[in-house]
Design goal:
Blueprint (H helix, E strand, L loop, with lengths): L2 E5 L2 E4 L4 E8 L4 E10 L6 E7 L4 E3 L7 E6 L4 E6 L8 E10 L4 E5 L3 E6 L1
Parallel strand pairs: 2-11
Antiparallel strand pairs: 1-3, 3-8, 4-5, 4-9, 5-6, 7-8, 9-10, 9-11
Length: about 120
Amino acid sequence: QVHLVESGGGLVQAGGSLRLSCVASGSIFRINAMGWHRQAPGKQRELVAVIFSGGSTTYADSVKGRFTISRDNAQNTVNLQMNSLKPEDTAVYYCNADIWERGTYGNHWGQGTQVTVSS
Protein backbone atom coordinates (compact mmCIF):
# COMPACT_ATOMS: atom_id res chain seq x y z
CA GLN A 1 0.00 0.00 0.00
CA VAL A 2 2.97 2.32 0.47
CA HIS A 3 3.66 4.24 -2.69
CA LEU A 4 6.63 6.44 -3.62
CA VAL A 5 6.19 9.09 -6.30
CA GLU A 6 9.22 10.83 -7.75
CA SER A 7 9.58 14.02 -9.72
CA GLY A 8 12.20 16.48 -10.87
CA GLY A 9 14.19 14.53 -13.40
CA GLY A 10 15.08 15.97 -16.76
CA LEU A 11 17.77 17.09 -19.13
CA VAL A 12 20.41 19.61 -18.09
CA GLN A 13 23.80 20.74 -19.30
CA ALA A 14 26.97 19.86 -17.46
CA GLY A 15 27.44 22.17 -14.51
CA GLY A 16 23.73 22.68 -14.08
CA SER A 17 21.41 21.70 -11.26
CA LEU A 18 18.33 19.61 -10.67
CA ARG A 19 16.24 18.90 -7.62
CA LEU A 20 14.57 15.53 -7.24
CA SER A 21 11.64 14.97 -4.92
CA CYS A 22 9.98 11.83 -3.64
CA VAL A 23 6.71 11.71 -1.74
CA ALA A 24 5.72 8.65 0.26
CA SER A 25 2.06 7.91 0.79
CA GLY A 26 -0.09 5.11 2.17
CA SER A 27 -0.31 3.33 5.50
CA ILE A 28 2.83 4.87 6.98
CA PHE A 29 3.54 4.71 10.68
CA ARG A 30 7.15 5.79 10.63
CA ILE A 31 9.85 6.27 8.02
CA ASN A 32 13.22 5.11 9.32
CA ALA A 33 15.24 6.20 6.32
CA MET A 34 14.79 7.61 2.85
CA GLY A 35 17.34 7.81 0.11
CA TRP A 36 18.25 7.73 -3.52
CA HIS A 37 19.89 5.15 -5.72
CA ARG A 38 20.79 5.43 -9.37
CA GLN A 39 21.45 3.08 -12.23
CA ALA A 40 23.18 3.97 -15.46
CA PRO A 41 23.15 1.78 -18.58
CA GLY A 42 25.62 -1.06 -18.21
CA LYS A 43 26.22 -0.37 -14.54
CA GLN A 44 24.86 -1.74 -11.30
CA ARG A 45 22.50 0.24 -9.16
CA GLU A 46 24.39 2.27 -6.60
CA LEU A 47 23.51 4.20 -3.50
CA VAL A 48 23.66 7.96 -3.97
CA ALA A 49 22.52 9.36 -0.64
CA VAL A 50 20.44 8.42 2.37
CA ILE A 51 19.02 10.35 5.29
CA PHE A 52 18.08 8.57 8.50
CA SER A 53 15.34 9.32 10.99
CA GLY A 54 17.76 11.11 13.29
CA GLY A 55 18.87 13.42 10.51
CA SER A 56 22.26 11.91 9.76
CA THR A 57 23.20 11.53 6.11
CA THR A 58 25.43 9.37 3.97
CA TYR A 59 26.67 10.14 0.47
CA ALA A 60 28.48 8.24 -2.20
CA ASP A 61 32.01 9.54 -2.63
CA SER A 62 31.24 10.48 -6.22
CA VAL A 63 28.59 13.01 -5.20
CA LYS A 64 29.96 14.45 -1.97
CA GLY A 65 30.08 18.21 -2.07
CA ARG A 66 27.70 18.36 -5.02
CA PHE A 67 24.50 16.66 -3.86
CA THR A 68 22.46 17.41 -0.75
CA ILE A 69 19.71 15.19 0.63
CA SER A 70 16.99 16.53 2.89
CA ARG A 71 13.64 15.49 4.35
CA ASP A 72 10.32 17.08 5.08
CA ASN A 73 8.87 14.77 7.70
CA ALA A 74 5.50 16.50 7.74
CA GLN A 75 5.03 15.69 4.07
CA ASN A 76 6.88 12.34 4.04
CA THR A 77 9.12 13.79 1.38
CA VAL A 78 12.79 13.38 0.57
CA ASN A 79 14.63 15.74 -1.75
CA LEU A 80 17.93 15.53 -3.55
CA GLN A 81 19.51 18.78 -4.63
CA MET A 82 22.03 18.04 -7.35
CA ASN A 83 24.53 20.74 -8.27
CA SER A 84 27.52 20.82 -10.57
CA LEU A 85 26.11 17.93 -12.53
CA LYS A 86 28.41 15.86 -14.68
CA PRO A 87 27.64 13.65 -17.67
CA GLU A 88 28.54 10.64 -15.54
CA ASP A 89 25.60 11.51 -13.29
CA THR A 90 23.29 10.46 -16.09
CA ALA A 91 21.14 7.62 -14.78
CA VAL A 92 17.70 6.61 -13.63
CA TYR A 93 17.33 7.79 -10.05
CA TYR A 94 15.19 5.72 -7.70
CA CYS A 95 13.69 6.79 -4.42
CA ASN A 96 14.00 4.25 -1.62
CA ALA A 97 12.53 4.14 1.86
CA ASP A 98 12.47 1.88 4.92
CA ILE A 99 8.99 2.24 6.35
CA TRP A 100 7.09 0.89 9.33
CA GLU A 101 3.48 0.25 8.43
CA ARG A 102 0.75 -1.06 10.71
CA GLY A 103 2.60 -3.97 12.27
CA THR A 104 4.96 -4.57 9.37
CA TYR A 105 8.25 -3.22 8.11
CA GLY A 106 9.39 -3.04 4.54
CA ASN A 107 11.65 -1.47 1.98
CA HIS A 108 10.00 0.36 -0.89
CA TRP A 109 11.08 1.77 -4.21
CA GLY A 110 9.79 4.47 -6.48
CA GLN A 111 9.31 4.13 -10.20
CA GLY A 112 12.48 6.00 -11.07
CA THR A 113 13.09 9.31 -12.79
CA GLN A 114 15.52 9.91 -15.63
CA VAL A 115 18.34 12.39 -15.19
CA THR A 116 20.36 13.20 -18.29
CA VAL A 117 23.37 15.51 -18.21
CA SER A 118 24.71 16.64 -21.56
CA SER A 119 28.33 17.53 -22.17
